[in-house]
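Ticket #4471: structure export looks truncated?
Reporter: QA, pipeline team
Priority: medium

Steps to reproduce: submit the single chain below to the structure queue and open the exported record.
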Amino acid sequence: MKKKLLELIVCPVCKNKLTLKTFKENREEIEAGVLLCSCGQFFPIIKNIPRILIGSLRVVVYERFPDFFKEYKNLLPQEKISKEIKGEDLKKKKTSESFGYEWEKFPEMIKEWEKNFKLYFAPLPKLDLLEGKTILDAGCGKGRHIFYAAKIAKEVIAVDLGTAIDVALYNNRNTENVYFIQADIYNLPFRANSFDFIFSLGVLHHLPTPEEGFSKLVGLLKNGAGILIYVYHNFSNGTFNFYLSALMNFFRRITIKIPHELLYVLCYPITILSYCTFVLPYRVFSKKDKSNWPLMAYANYPFRVLLNDIFDSFSAPIENRYSKEEITDWYQRANLKNIKILENGGWHVFGTK
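Actual output as written to the record:
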């Protein structure tokens, strides 16, 4: 953890400043330590990342890093952690485990991600809007968008609930102006009006209550600041994608219960069949107008990107889809202005506070 991060974060419970106790340090980076709050909360820093989770979600950190708590037992405040998680926290934990496995399995940083970054950020009037700004990436995954945002912004704070945050740190290990935090979107360690810009791409539709998560992010924006999200769209009745989505939802009832290692193997034949049936023919006939060709976007990416997305579709415990009207209502109810929506594999939506 970079020490400067202390200037940007607060206790997610009481919003007071945190104090740092260092256990292991290397070149201005805190490798191991703890953040303490006067309200009694404490948050371990493990492998350079502060793990700022509250309530029953804290078991995620204890299960993942038992050696840390054993090694520093005498330096850490003691607490009793129940391994029983219920309700929305259980849904969050399952989702974080699914995406943690996914990004550890698909950590690649490929040159195509630069064009992908520009595609996602297309609703912005111009990318220069990020210049000199303090930005939050809410649900950063493996950190592919951070890499390019950091080239423009003053600083980027990357947050993810699961161990994907460790993959993101590794993929951006040489980027000086990025800070990494393991935290929950519903309980982020920031004060209101903290950020000049927030983006959350492919995340909110996997939350138990997506619009609530969106509202939490809006509350962190400064006046005049913008927020960009990407969420899945629903499909018109009678279209190929409508029936394909219905078929996938039928199988998802089973696949979300399959161990991730087995599901990964099972996704290979599905991906090969999809690639040979749709992607390769599109490449051959791409000179003709085939704007509705299934999976056409994957013609511009390596095979493993399609494999990644098919695994994602079958593994994520929660998946919500929205109409243009529904997602516009989110922005209007949050009193956001200058709303711009683009459709490209889902809704890319931008607005300002």
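Status: closed, not a bug. The export was complete when the record was re-opened. Leaving a note from the reviewer for reference: The chain has a mean pLDDT of 94.
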